[in-house]
Amino acid sequence: MADARIPRALTIAGSDSGGGAGIQADLKTFTALGVYGMSAVTSITAQNTTGVARIHDLPPTLVAEQIKAVATDLGLDAAKTGMLSNVPIIEAVAEAIAAHGIAKLVVDPVMIAKGGAPLLNPSALEAMKQCIVSIALVVTPNIPETIALSGMTIENRADLQEAAARIYETGPRYVLIKGGHFEAVDVTDYLYDGVRLHEFTAPRIDTKNTHGTGCTYSAAIAAYLAKGDDVPTAVRKAKEYLTHAIRRSFDLGAGHGPLNHFWNLGNTPCA
Tell me, which fold does domain 8-140+209-265 have in CATH? Predict the structure, then answer.
C-alpha cells in the first residue's frame, strides 16, 4: 500500500527530450516541492531549446492504461494535463480521469510550443474544451490559449474578465489566465473564481531562458494542491516558485534555455 502521508501527483503530458518542458519539467517540479511524481506519457517529441523536430503520439489505450496503472496502485492526490495532441487521446484521458475519480485536476491547455510548433491538432480544440477543460479544477491558459478557448480578442482587463467568464461557463471551477504575453514591467496572472479576478503579480525577469514555464507553473499548482492547499494559495505559491526558477534559469542551448527547477534545494550551480 502507498504511504498516505506522501503527497502524490500525476502528470499526463508529452515527453520533451531536451528535459525543459513536458513530463520532465513536471516531475522535476513535483520532486522539488516534496511531492511523489508519476507520469502518463501522451506523446514523444524530439526537441531541444530551439524547437520541436518530430512528434509521435502514443496509442490512446496505452495512455489510459498508464493512468490506470498508477491510480489503482500508488494512488494520487492531484493530477495535471499537458500536451494532449489529438481527439482520441483527449477522449481517453477524459474517460480515465472520470473512471478514477481524479478531482484535483489542473489543465494546461498546451497548444503551441515555445518555438512555435503546434502541439494541439486544430481539429481537437473543441474536444479539449468539452472533454478536458470542462472537468478541470483549474485551467491555466496563456493569452493566445485564452483567445482560442474563449473565442474573443483581449485588449484590456475587462476583456480578460469576460474571457475568463466564458471559459468558466464551460465547466472549470477556476480559470487562471497567465499574463506573460502582455508587455509590461511586471507579469500579472488573473485567477477567476466565477465572481471576481484575483491578481498575482511578480517582476518580469529579463531572460530568454523560459522553456517550460507553462508546464512548470501548472505542475507546481498541482503539487501544492496535492499537499492540501486551496486553489488561490496553490497559485500564489506556484507563482513564487516559478519566478525564482526563471530568475535562476540555465543558459543552455542555442534557443530558449530551461528553468532551474531545483533552485530551492540549494544544490545546483545556479542556486
Answer: UDP-N-acetylmuramoyl-L-alanine:D-glutamate ligase (3.40.1190)
